[in-house]
Write a sequence for this structure.
């Protein structure tokens, strides 16, 4: 993937995670996780082309003030094609939080971590 490509990760239809130029984000709050294809790319917000409703919700979230935006995310209840709604991340239940963390850890590939660390090392040596 080059810097102009846009990608969007949908984690098993329950939580939406996106990659921006500043890292991995859930909603608009920064989340640790895999570095994606290009850890230092300058790509913009990424969306599935066929998921218009979710794209509109992300656009609405991006227009909110930073303080509010940092605590919100998009929750897709029924998997692909399910109910998509905006949620307060602080109000997620313990089960929903656990599922989110499990999916983040599960989807963090060794190759992605290795690629990120090599790019980070190269950047530090510049």
């Amino acid at each position: 993937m080059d810097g102009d490509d846009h990608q969007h990760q949908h984690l098993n239809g329950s939580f939406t995670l996106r990659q921006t130029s500043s890292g991995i984000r859930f909603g608009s709050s920064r989340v640790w996780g895999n570095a994606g294809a290009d850890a230092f790319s300058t790509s913009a917000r990424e969306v599935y082309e066929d998921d218009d409703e979710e794209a509109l919700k992300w656009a609405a979230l991006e227009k909110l003030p930073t303080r509010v935006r940092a605590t919100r995310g998009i929750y897709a209840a029924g998997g692909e094609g399910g109910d998509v709604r905006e949620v307060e991340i602080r109000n997620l239940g313990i089960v929903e939080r656990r599922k989110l963390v499990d999916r983040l850890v599960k989807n963090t590939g060794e190759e992605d971590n290795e690629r990120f660390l090599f790019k980070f090392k190269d950047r530090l040596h510049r």
The CA atoms of residues 49 and 55 lie 8 Å apart. The beta strands are 8-11, 15-20, 23-26, 29-30, 72-76, 84-88. The chain has one domain: 8-125. Residues 8-125 form one domain.
